[in-house]
Design brief:
Blueprint lengths: L3 H17 L8 H15 L4 H22 L6 H24 L5 H7 L4
Helix pairs in contact: 1-2, 1-3, 3-4
Length: 115
């Protein structure tokens, strides 16, 4: 089960990575490294099946949005459609991960058939 705090840490990582990617030419390497530090600490307690897609997808989205705010082109309607599909998939991943409850040892023993 993933806690809301873990999801928020992953969102912070995506913001730190995604918003600084277009700014790397302008010396934001320290912020980029801070994102990596938060990411590695969060990986210790977070399910990888949520952490990796959430962080990488949001990093991409935030990189595109930050680049657009800086005047860069981002790909038009197809890019917006891709972003919406990505956000829909991420929302489904988060909902399913937060709703999961890990099996306790009592449940595993109770569900194990006797031989």
């Amino acid at each position: 089960m993933v806690s809301v705090g873990e999801v928020l840490c992953l969102l912070l990582v995506a913001v730190l990575w995604g918003c600084t990617n277009p700014l790397l030419k302008r010396a934001t390497e320290g912020i980029e490294h801070l994102g990596s530090l938060v990411y590695y600490f969060t990986l210790a307690t977070t399910d990888l099946s949520l952490a990796v897609p959430l962080t990488n997808s949001l990093t991409f989205l935030l990189t595109v949005l930050t680049g657009k705010m800086l005047g860069e082109e981002f790909g038009g309607k197809r890019a917006v459609g891709g972003m919406l599909l990505t956000m829909t998939g991420l929302t489904l991943c988060i909902i399913s991960s937060i709703g999961d409850t890990p099996a306790t040892s009592e449940q595993v023993v109770a569900d194990t058939p006797l031989q």
